Amino acid sequence: MRTLEQRRCTLHMVNNVEMAGEKDFNVPTNPYGDDIESVLISENKLKERIREMAARVSEDYRDSEEDLILVCVLKGAFYFLSDFSRELTIPSQSEFMAVSSYGNSTSSSGVVRILKDLDKDIEGRDVLIVEDIIDSGLTLSWLMRNLKNRHPKSLNVITLLRKPERLTANIDMYDIGFDIPNEFVVGYGLDFAERYRDLPYVGTLEPRVYSD
């Protein structure tokens, strides 16, 4: 297996912040009416980037002796995992873990509690954590320490989204889909109060929705 190097999707710079793209205020018809302010990352852009990420993982883990273990962090990363795993060209197995840190707020609380643990023993296995979004990184940092204590052969992380402005934890990332501005985003698995996960794109909420 080749040396795993950090990669990320560089698109363009706005005010020294790497952005996923300009907002599109022509929001497609959706079940939530005018709750969605804009589309930040379209469905097509998501598919294209996930295909690229899966190709890189497939290449780097091609010589693994056993199936790659994908650890999906519920609930948000489920949509990402589903599409990502189907784009892989190597065998993989999916495991699920749920931790609490968000509640209904628009930022991480920093309090971590395991709600659902892995079903499989990961000792001696190549493990790839699949995250939907990294905000402060505190929850992920805790999760990585927890999984490292289970003695996997290797442990790496991919995330679909990252907020560089919010990041406080020092985390070595294997791959990052998009860097996004410090806004509350929903769709493609991301929610606010358990709503909006089913949108096929990543969008921003109207401020009135989360300020009520």
Please supply descriptive tags for the structure shown above.
guanine phosphoribosyltransferase activity, PRTase_dom, 212 residues, alpha/beta, 12 strands, PRTase-like, disordered N terminus, 21% helix, 4 helices, Rossmann fold, single chain, 3-stranded antiparallel sheet
Give a brief outline of the structure.
The chain has 4 helices and 12 strands.
| Name given to the CATH architecture of the domain at 43-184 | 3-Layer(aba) Sandwich
What class, by secondary structure content?
A: alpha/beta
Give the CATH topology of the domain at 43-184. Rossmann fold
Number of strands: 12
Number of helices: 4
Walk across the major sheet and give the strand order. Answer: 1-10-9-8-5-6-7
Shape annotation: globular
- Rg over alpha carbons: 17 Å
Distance between the termini: 50 Å
Helix content: 10-25%
- Strand percent estimate: 25-35%
Listing every helix as H and every strand as E from the N terminus to the C terminus, the arrangement reads: EEEEHEHEEEHEEEEH
Mean model confidence by pLDDT: 86
Blueprint (SSEs and pairs):
Layout: E1 7-8, E2 12-14, E3 17-19, E4 36-41, H1 43-60, E5 68-74, H2 78-87, E6 92-100, E7 113-116, E8 126-134, H3 138-148, E9 154-162, E10 175-179, E11 185-186, E12 202-205, H4 207-211
Parallel strand pairs: 1-10, 5-6, 5-8, 8-9, 9-10
Antiparallel strand pairs: 2-3, 4-12, 6-7, 11-12
